[in-house]
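in:
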């Protein structure tokens, strides 16, 4: 797995939840395509400097949500799910058939930013992301730009 997972010990979010959120985010945005094999529990735990039980709990939560599948032969892999396009179509208003959800007309910078945020929320929810995950993704992107 080439994607980088980072544990922030300064936050109140438990490490297993950070791992779970980051893996589900990477899957949702296409960084971890369907069928991708995740690292073993021990390997990821060693890479992150956490206990194997922490990673095992994150994987168990992901598996119970249907995001990954674990078996002895293949290990833990990204599970098959409906495509992002299908989820976007479900979230799209019935009269919007263009393939994307356009932001409303805007008149100022603040209004444009709010429209972009609204658009991000709609697309994020269509991709199966919750608010907490969207915030995590935004924080990660902002940190990259520094």
């Amino acid at each position: 797995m080439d994607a980088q997972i980072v544990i922030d010990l300064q936050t109140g979010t438990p490490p297993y939840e950070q791992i779970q959120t980051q893996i589900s985010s990477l899957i949702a945005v296409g960084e971890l395509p369907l069928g991708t094999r995740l690292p073993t529990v021990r390997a990821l735990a060693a890479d992150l400097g956490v206990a194997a039980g922490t990673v095992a709990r994150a994987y168990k939560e992901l598996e119970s949500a249907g995001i990954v599948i674990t078996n002895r032969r293949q290990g833990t892999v990204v599970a098959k799910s409906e495509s992002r396009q299908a989820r976007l179509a479900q979230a799209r208003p019935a009269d919007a058939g263009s393939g994307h959800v356009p932001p409303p007309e805007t008149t100022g910078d603040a209004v444009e930013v709010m429209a972009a945020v609204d658009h991000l929320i709609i697309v994020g929810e269509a991709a199966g992301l919750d608010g907490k995950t969207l915030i995590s993704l935004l924080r990660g992107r902002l940190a990259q730009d520094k």
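note: The CA atoms of residues 8 and 98 lie 40 Å apart.
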